[in-house]
Write the structure tokens for this entry.
Amino acid sequence: MEKKISILVVDDEESVRDSLSLWFVEDGYRVECAENAKKALSILESDTFDIILTDLKMPGMDGLEMLRRIKVLNKDSIIIVMTAFATVDTAVKALKDGAFDYVTKPFDPDDLSHLIRNATRQITLAQENETLKKRVDSLESVEDLIGKSEAIKRVLKEVESVAPTNSSVIITGESGTGKELVARAIHANSLRKFYPLVSVHCGALTESLLESELFGHEKGSFTGALYNRKGRFEMADSGTIFLDEIATISAKMQVELLRVLETKSFMRVGGNKEISSDFRVICATNRDLKSMVEKGTFREDLYYRLNVMNIHVPPLRERVEDIPLLVEYFIRKYCTTMNKPVITIDPAASKRILAYQFPGNIRELENMIERAIVVGNGRKIGLADLPFGKDVIESSVESLEDFEKAFILQILNKYSWNISRTAQALKVDRVTLYNKIKKYSLKS
Amino acid sequence: MNPPTITLFTFGHFERGFLERISGAVTKEYNCSVVIKEAHTDISEFFDPGRRQYNGDKLLREVDTLQVQGSAKVIGLFQVDLFIPILTYIFGQAQLGGRTAIASLYRLSNERYGMKADDELLLNRFIKEVIHELGHTFGLIHCHTASCVMQSSTYVEDIDLKNSHLCSKCRTETGKV
């Protein structure tokens, strides 16, 4: 649906406001007027406009000061300054402060039409640019979903069938298995692909921050809310919102999320205007939501609202046959990024990688390859370039004590048994470290 | 009940034949009866000596005060140079979705632009302008169809490019009114 371009006219002369308003309404624009800068800024606190046409000389705050304040609120605002007292100085000043253009009153009807047409073209170009950028990002990220195993083929098939629908999806799987990539693949293959995919890592934010992040906030709604801010739901309009680590959200947020999913409308924190947004929701979690529902820590109604489709991403140890392809892919990716010739991997190193359990899944493999390229000789990744036996503790450790022992030994070796430096690295005092060495009978 | 009427109020002298052609075109376009009336208002008080033009906003309000029994729409026809404070000139203006409009011949004649007089062209331009402004009183906004009379025109050349009729979409819109 084509959105009406909106214009805010700011002028202290009523006849100017009325004439411009009528002119723009006849041209099919949405128009609002303000008689001074203060009123305009107050309107801009609760509404947004594509173009702001303002007089330069007004009683109270002048147009230049208002321009500066609007630019702080929204640096992309298109502001056209008009004045009856044109001088080159003020024109240059206005342009330097970010005005889109400058006109002298009264102006020819044709100049006005051209001015607005140019501004509209600028808005359209900026929107197209943003959409295309997001589209490119999405398409690039889908390439990361690599593999030939039955397990990954099943995931891709599910992505293919769920993508064109509007259904909510929950992606489950261990950390580092690539749940976000699956979400990107769903978005990039959906009808919403030309609109944004907005990601929110729910686990990284406190309840109040998450609320403001998702719903946005109005200026002054809490300490530090200096400006109006769009929320992620608003930003995801016509696109997709990806809520990672959904299991971590509080009971209060679960209620709010359910309401938004049901009505597709919400209010900004501290706001009183209902905002509608058409988004699709994809969630991810590494926890068992079903058992959380049974325990009463996750709302059942929200669970069923989100869990229309479920895609489980298998851990890397269940798709070992994909490891060589992934290794090759990450080598090419990081050599290209680092401007190095694409290298190969030594068979012994390859064998060692295949034997490893990868508790950190693909993320761990990716980091391992990146590191190997950095520390390696630039010709071939060898066993020595891999962190096995040095920084990585083998997954064969079975208890916390085994783990602690292995880890302390690893750090002691790293610092050549220098007790002070090792204690510092482990963030314990030297006495504690001596006690641990004694307890585990560690020897250099 | 009588069908709604559009009244053409003339300010200054217009040839009878010229007015009848306009009246015919308006009748055909809006499918209603048209009455021509002569206004006896002294418009000198609407003259702005600084700009040497007539204030279109004030004239629109003045025409709006003229009471005409049974008239759904009223348009004032002028021969003087019109302006509104923010623009250097206007061909005409109207109350969007209202009752009243104004239009002027002044800037439509070839002679204003150093060209040879063309009475037929002038008449056609004025007909388009009158139908355009009346369209606004029916609630029509500017149309993007190149040939539609509701296409925005800021130069006389623009007026010549469109025809004197509403496109089908605009016609449907006026039907709703």
